[in-house]
Write a structure and sequence with these properties.
Layout lengths: L6 E5 L9 H12 L3 E3 H10 L26 H4 L2 H17 L3 E5 L5 H12 L6 E5 L4 H9 L7 E4 L6 E8 L8 E6 L2 E10 L2 E8 L14 E5 L1 H13 E13 L1 H4 L10 E4 L2 E3 L10 E3 L2 E2 H10 L2 E8 H7 L2 H4 L5 H11 L4 H4 E8 L21
Parallel strand pairs: 3-4, 3-6, 4-5, 6-11, 11-15
Antiparallel strand pairs: 1-9, 2-8, 7-8, 7-10, 8-9, 11-17, 12-13, 12-14, 16-17
Helix pairs in contact: 4-5, 7-9
Length: 380
């Protein structure tokens, strides 16, 4: 990178410490690549490197408290009321599209799958098959144990077939797809890459032709992300989904909010022990790394690849439309309190969004009940 390189905030091991096997692998890969690595590749190795990445290693991740060894809690882990409400939307989509299979990406501990299958049975819309698309490893072992009672109705896959008919679900999956960080420094856009700093890592900036999809007004320094891998994933879904619906739930914004001039620090963060920090290069494999979702980018990629957007709204509005409040009436006070976290605008209710996609024309004749009121598709 010559004189164009700008190195910031190195993350190095403490004196006398030994680099982890994953850190050593990443350092070797950086050296082999000539001294720098795209952050996309760093994030991919940190999260998914077989045997060592955050989601590939056998450490606890999901739970209510740090004392459980967990790093964060997802909606299905927070309360089964989430899955019971979601089942109403899945049941409607299965019936409306004439399909019988659910595909879940990144099923975590299996909590959503277990509750969803049981609730679909109770609603009289049982699934013939529930397919989990996930990496092999410790999480899959936990899923198999939790879902054993459903027998061969549940299966696992690492790749998608050429044709899919059914309802595809992704709860907090898009935020874990590697991103490309960009930094405007002195009015010039750079791609932010990873370099060696002793036995650790540091950021370095290299000039790039990449730009955010919207102009960011002002001349102030500005950090953000673009999402080529997320958009490629959505196009893959579009290529495979011939009948049914894809539903993604995650934290994020439409484009105008994502690239707002005041959001100058970007959204890239790490999670560990229920704490959030921005030291995403520190201790790879020991932290979750995430970025918010640009839902406008998801919608445009879907439309360009032949899918229709048939709904987009906040998680709070989506779950209320599905009857979550009514479902919570018989629950104990603790469950009702957790239900409030799912819908309250200062908790998960507004930060999390829901988007629904179907093959072109596949949404004709029916309106997903989760978007019956408060649809925000016009704001994408």
């Amino acid at each position: 990178m010559g004189d164009n390189r700008r190195v910031n905030a190195p993350f190095v091991n403490q004196p006398g410490s030994v680099a982890s096997p994953l850190t050593a692998r990443i350092l070797t890969a950086i050296d082999a690549a000539g001294g720098q690595m795209s952050f996309e590749r760093f994030m991919s190795m940190a999260l998914y490197e077989p045997g060592f990445g955050y989601y590939a290693a056998g450490t606890p991740k999901f739970g209510h408290f740090p004392s459980q060894g967990s790093d964060f809690v997802t909606a299905p882990e927070l309360t089964p009321l989430f899955a019971r409400a979601l089942a109403r939307q899945v049941a409607q989509a299965l019936a409306a599209t004439g399909t019988q299979e659910v595909w879940e990406f990144g099923a975590g501990s299996g909590a959503l799958a277990a509750e969803l299958i049981a609730e679909l049975d109770a609603l009289g819309q049982p699934v013939a098959r529930y397919t989990i698309v996930d990496l092999p490893g410790e999480l899959r072992a936990r899923q198999r144990e939790r879902l054993a009672a459903f027998g061969d109705r549940v299966r696992w896959a690492e790749v998608l077939p050429d044709r899919i008919e059914g309802v595809l679900l992704g709860n907090e999956i898009l935020d874990a797809i590697p991103v490309t960080p960009l930094a405007r420094v002195g009015g010039v856009w750079h791609e932010r890459v990873v370099v060696r700093a002793g036995d650790g890592f540091a950021w370095a900036d290299r000039p790039t032709t990449l730009r955010p999809p919207l102009d960011v007004p002002g001349e102030h320094d500005y950090c953000t992300e673009v999402h080529p891998q997320t958009e490629a994933f959505v196009r893959t879904i579009a290529d495979r989904l011939v009948r049914g619906m894809a539903l993604f739930i995650d934290y994020g914004f439409p484009e105008a909010e994502y690239y707002h001039p005041q959001r100058h620090m970007g959204t890239l963060v790490a999670h560990r022990a229920h704490q959030v920090d921005d030291e995403v290069l520190d201790r790879p494999g020991e932290k979750d790394i995430t970025a918010h979702v640009n839902f406008t980018g998801v919608a445009l990629a879907a439309q360009d690849a032949g899918l229709d957007v048939i709904g987009y709204t906040s998680q709070g509005r989506f779950l209320i439309n599905l009857g979550l409040v009514e479902l919570s009436q018989g629950a104990d006070p603790r469950e009702r309190s957790r239900m409030q976290m799912l819908v309250h605008e200062h908790e998960m209710g507004e930060l999390f969004k829901v988007i629904a996609l179907t093959p072109s024309g596949g949404g004709a004749g029916w309106v997903p009940i989760g978007f019956a009121h408060g649809d925000r598709t016009h704001r994408l």
